[in-house]
């Protein structure tokens, strides 16, 4: 058993039971170890959750970085879509990620910011756009993952539309991009 194996099993447990039911007791049982042995790898459950959040983001964190000749709008949209896909890969992935600090991803974030600025986006606008897109994406994924079985329209009044999460996400992303490309004077 090593740290990576513990995190992998914890993510498997997350997918099975959801974030609210993940516990060190359950994880220890799943690993066939005594609960205190997990403290060798993670001093607290918060430390375990942080490691799980980082590992769950691996598909997005290893996506190609923008190249200097990339169109910033296309890259920004693709980057945001990659983030969403990654959040949706895990049960409660958005909740797991919410509030986490991307400490292992700081160099990649700086590279992305530098790319936007080099593409002509003012630094403050680039920062706010990345933050806005991130929070919009997490919120969208939270809503999508929180839906109940009634989301197919059964039990809803006839005048309440069923949300197509993909279309709603794309529309919101387009608004963010349009706002960044054509800022309104203050």
TrEMBL record:
<protein>
    <submittedName>
        <fullName>TetR/AcrR family transcriptional regulator C-terminal domain-containing protein</fullName>
    </submittedName>
</protein>
<dbReference type="InterPro" id="IPR050109">
    <property type="entry name" value="HTH-type_TetR-like_transc_reg"/>
</dbReference>
<keyword id="KW-0805">Transcription regulation</keyword>
<dbReference type="InterPro" id="IPR009057">
    <property type="entry name" value="Homeodomain-like_sf"/>
</dbReference>
<keyword id="KW-0678">Repressor</keyword>
<dbReference type="InterPro" id="IPR004111">
    <property type="entry name" value="Repressor_TetR_C"/>
</dbReference>
<dbReference type="Pfam" id="PF00440">
    <property type="entry name" value="TetR_N"/>
</dbReference>
<keyword id="KW-0804">Transcription</keyword>
<dbReference type="Pfam" id="PF02909">
    <property type="entry name" value="TetR_C_1"/>
</dbReference>
<feature type="DNA-binding region" description="H-T-H motif">
    <location>
        <begin position="23"/>
        <end position="42"/>
    </location>
</feature>
<dbReference type="InterPro" id="IPR023772">
    <property type="entry name" value="DNA-bd_HTH_TetR-type_CS"/>
</dbReference>
<dbReference type="InterPro" id="IPR003012">
    <property type="entry name" value="Tet_transcr_reg_TetR"/>
</dbReference>
<keyword id="KW-0238">DNA-binding</keyword>
<dbReference type="InterPro" id="IPR036271">
    <property type="entry name" value="Tet_transcr_reg_TetR-rel_C_sf"/>
</dbReference>
<feature type="domain" description="HTH tetR-type">
    <location>
        <begin position="1"/>
        <end position="60"/>
    </location>
</feature>
<dbReference type="InterPro" id="IPR001647">
    <property type="entry name" value="HTH_TetR"/>
</dbReference>
């Amino acid at each position: 058993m090593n740290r990576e194996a513990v995190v992998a099993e914890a993510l498997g447990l997350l997918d099975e039971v959801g974030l609210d039911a993940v516990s060190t007791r359950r994880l220890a049982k799943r690993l066939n170890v005594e609960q205190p042995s997990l403290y060798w790898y993670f001093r607290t459950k918060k430390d375990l959750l942080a490691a799980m959040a980082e590992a769950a983001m691996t598909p997005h964190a290893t996506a190609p970085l923008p190249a200097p000749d990339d169109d910033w709008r296309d890259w920004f949209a693709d980057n945001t879509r990659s983030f969403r896909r990654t959040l949706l890969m895990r049960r409660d992935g958005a909740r797991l990620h919410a509030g986490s600090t991307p400490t292992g991803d700081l160099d990649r974030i700086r590279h992305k910011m530098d790319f936007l600025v080099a593409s002509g986006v003012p630094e403050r606008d680039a920062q706010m756009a990345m933050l806005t897109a991130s929070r919009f994406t997490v919120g969208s994924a939270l809503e999508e993952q929180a839906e109940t079985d009634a989301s197919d329209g059964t039990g809803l009044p006839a005048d309440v539309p069923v949300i197509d999460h993909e279309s709603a996400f794309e529309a919101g992303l387009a608004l963010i991009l349009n706002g960044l490309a054509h800022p309104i004077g203050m």
